Amino acid sequence: xxxxxxxxxxxxxxxxxxxxxxxxxxxxxxxxxxxxxxxxxxxxxxxxxxxxxxxxxxxxxxxxxxxxx
Length: 69
Known about the structure:
two-stranded antiparallel sheet; 0% helix; 23% strand
């Protein structure tokens, strides 16, 4: 299990699979506190491969998106 809450970093709040912010990822206030802010072209959060993320064939991904056009 992993949970990247975007609380000022890309740290994993659940499992120790910390990510790295790349190419200017920022943070913005949202409905539940704070969220990642991507530039829409090259920013991303890189999460290294980890055995703890490969323990099951079941996968659930959840995210909220606010696409500013």
